[in-house]
Amino acid sequence: MLDPPEPDDDAAQPPRAPVAAPSPRGLVLACADLLHRGDLDGARRLAGAVLSGADPRGDAADRLA
């Protein structure tokens, strides 16, 4: 006799809420976390995203980046 099918892992997860755009400060902190974990490629990609969105004439959070 056949066993019942295994449930999908995705089916057990509740739907995810939409994610707001991260702040420049949050991106810098996430980049530092990736560096701490040793993920240099991920940190480089994230640093590129931070630098592409940074504005030296912006508010303090933008200038932090």
UniProtKB/TrEMBL annotation:
<feature type="compositionally biased region" description="Low complexity">
    <location>
        <begin position="12"/>
        <end position="24"/>
    </location>
</feature>
<feature type="region of interest" description="Disordered">
    <location>
        <begin position="1"/>
        <end position="24"/>
    </location>
</feature>
<protein>
    <submittedName>
        <fullName>Uncharacterized protein</fullName>
    </submittedName>
</protein>
<feature type="compositionally biased region" description="Acidic residues">
    <location>
        <begin position="1"/>
        <end position="11"/>
    </location>
</feature>
